[in-house]
Structure formats: structure tokens, C-alpha cells
Amino acid sequence: MKSILVTGGCGFIGSNFIRMQRERYPQQTIHNVDKLTYAGNLENLADLIEDANYHFHRVDICNREALLKLVQTVQPEAILNFAAESHVDRSILDSGPFVQTNIIGTQVLMDVAREVGVARYVQVSTDEVYGSLGSDGAFTEETPLAPNSPYSSSKAAADLLVRSYVHTFDFPAIVTRCSNNYGPYQFPEKLIPLFISNAMENKSLPVYGTGENVRDWIHVLDHCRGIDAALRKGEIGEVYNFGGHLELTNLEMTHILIDLLGKSRDLITYVQDRPGHDLRYAIDSSKAEQNLGWFPQVPFEQGIRDTIAWYQSHTDWVTRIQSGEYLQYIEEQYAGRLKK
């Protein structure tokens, strides 16, 4: 593809995807559209500011007029929607931004894509739309949607809206759903970067409930490879699941991080469980493996060590987010140094 447009590209997964695309397809032009909310960090892609094939646009995907003007101008062959409010705890405190960005934003983005005639659209979703599993089984693409949090409900609604556009308008969309990601550039409120940062400073590690909730973990680069495979090989109207074949309880993950960092398990503090906390997620990725030729490539032992090392060598990045200084960086870029 000559040109793609990525929404939410300054976030964790989006920025890793853009960097991977620049490495894999150096002749391809990438347009990164991000509103730069609290989780959108220009610093995540600061090394690409002078890249002639990378262009950043500060646009809210809910702003139809601005988005339409941009898409008509740059004429991307494909749009990939990473833009989302994604933190469950925040959705419990206030679901409004999740409904606005995750549902309305998706609707506006698809309407613009239809009007301009974009050839392919990829909706990046989550395994949380399936709800909670018992002790057996795994989510497949045929598992009924049963979301249990405002966040996952907003993502499920967006997925269903995408499905309706495919069937009603022959819209060229694909949906991807993935298990818990880990890796560099993840916002420090998430479990792994939060616990790494806290443990490095000998601060407490707040584990919900008894820590028995189970998650399937995948390295962000494996997820990005899956999205790329869906973009280029996937069939219109299909859903593809991506998982890491690695189930761990939150307590097991906490122990792994503590042990690799050489810290004491006395740092663990058990806190009141999150309301509606899903017990277990597990992904069956066989459809993607068989139809897209995709397989996770990063061994967890290597991936988690590399992730810890990244946060250890990027303490300034974490500190700037925790202090809010990264927001000043964004404003400074817009004061004249950001490439037009």
C-alpha cells in the first residue's frame, strides 16, 4: 500500500504499529491522526518527526468536518482505527468519553471512509468484548459478545456498528481482537509498566482482590504483526483473534516482575477488587494462524525481560508522564517545532 491512515497512533499499540510499518514498508506513507488526550504522547514517535513518509495530524475522530477534509486531502488506501479510550478503571468513573470516542468516533470515521471511498478499514478491538470465561475454553471469533464494563461495552458497540456497515453498505471492514498487550511505550497506569515503575522505586504494588484473575498476554509487536496481516490478507467482514498462548493470573505476573527486578514480594498490597472484574480471558488464535499465516513470535521470557529493560532505560519517559510534563512537550512541538 502506498498510503495508510492510522488513528490513535500516539498511543501504546498505535505507536508501535507505526514504527513497525516504517521498518517493514519504507516507501509507504503514514498519516497519524491523534487527538492527543492524556494517553496520546507525541514523544512516543518523536524520532519520526523528520521522516518524510510520516505525517502527524492533531484531529479528533469525532470531528467529522476536520476528518473529512483531511482524508479527502491525503487519500489513504486504508484506515486503521486504534483510537480509543481503553482504561477500564477510568470507564467505571466516567463512561462518557468512552461512548464518545469508541462509538461515535468509529461511526464518524467509517462515514468519512465511505464518502471518500477508502479501500480497506481495520477496527482494532479487544478480547474484553467477549466477557469473562470460566476455568475452561477460550474465546473464538464465534463467541457471543458479552461485555461487562463500560469500556468493553463501548468497544463491543463499535464492533457491531462495523459489522452493520459491512452488511448494509458493503463497507470494506475487518475487525481484530487481541488479548492483553505488553511492551514499550505502554501508558504507566497499566499493570505491567505501573508495577515495574513502582517496584523500581520500592513502592507498593496494588493487586486487585486475591490476584486470581487470569489474562492471556501477547507482546505488542506480535499484535502489530497480526493487525498488519489482517490489513493485507484478511477477508472483508471477518473477525480475527490474536493471543499470546500465555495465561497468567495477575498475581503470577506480579511475582514474575518482582523476581526479575530483584525486589521483595512484601511490596504486594491487596486492594478492593474492581467492580465487575472479569475472571479470565483466553484467546483461540487458530483462525488467524490458519488463514493469515500469523503466529506469535516473541517468547514471553524474552519479551518480559526486554520490556523491563526498556522501562529501566526510559525512567525519564515514565517520570514525564507521571508529572504531566509530557503535555508540555506536546505544546512546545505545536509552538513551532512540529513538522507541518
Automatic annotation (TrEMBL):
Q: Name one Pfam family in it.
A: GDP_Man_Dehyd
- Entries under InterPro entries matching the protein: dTDP_Gluc_deHydtase, NAD(P)-bd_dom, NAD(P)-bd_dom_sf
Tell me the enzyme class: lyase
Which reaction(s) are listed as its catalytic activity? dTDP-alpha-D-glucose = dTDP-4-dehydro-6-deoxy-alpha-D-glucose + H2O
Instruction: Domain (NAD(P)-binding): give its ranges.
Output: 5-307
Give GO terms: molecular function aspect only: dTDP-glucose 4,6-dehydratase activity
Entry keyword Lyase:
yes
Give its E.C. classification number: 4.2.1.46
Q: Which cofactor does it need?
A: NAD(+)
Q: Which UniProt keywords apply?
A: Lyase, NAD
Q: Which GO terms describe its biological process?
A: nucleotide-sugar metabolic process
Q: Which superkingdom is the protein from?
A: Bacteria
The entry's family comment says: Belongs to the NAD(P)-dependent epimerase/dehydratase family. dTDP-glucose dehydratase subfamily.
PANTHER family xref list: DTDP-D-GLUCOSE 4,6-DEHYDRATASE-RELATED
Q: What is this protein called?
A: dTDP-glucose 4,6-dehydratase
**Natural source organism:** Polystyrenella longa
- What is the primary gene name for this protein? rfbB_2
